[in-house]
Amino acid sequence: MNRHGKSTPRGTRDTMAKRVFLERRTYRRNRLQDAAKLLPVLGAFLFFGPVFILTTDAGVGGATAGWLVYFLGVWLALIVVAAALARALDRITPSDPDQPGER
To answer: How far apart, in Å, are the Cα atoms of 34 and each of 18, 45, 92?
Structure first.
């Protein structure tokens, strides 16, 4: 029998009970939190990936100034992306008036 007291044929299930529907706001917040959690991994890959790929036995390929510009560019891009994610999460996350220090 199902939850409404009616018998159901064997092998069928109440599919609506198994499905999980999230509100658009909750789904977006979860995806933004996932992106924020993966940002350090992306940063590590961007910082160390080219060093491992472009390094030869003789040393790091390319000029030092070029590497410095690359690292500073990646660093600034990570800061901008982190700020954008923080701002988007701040807009989506409901504020709790009971907690001090919050809005």
So the answer is: 24, 17, 14
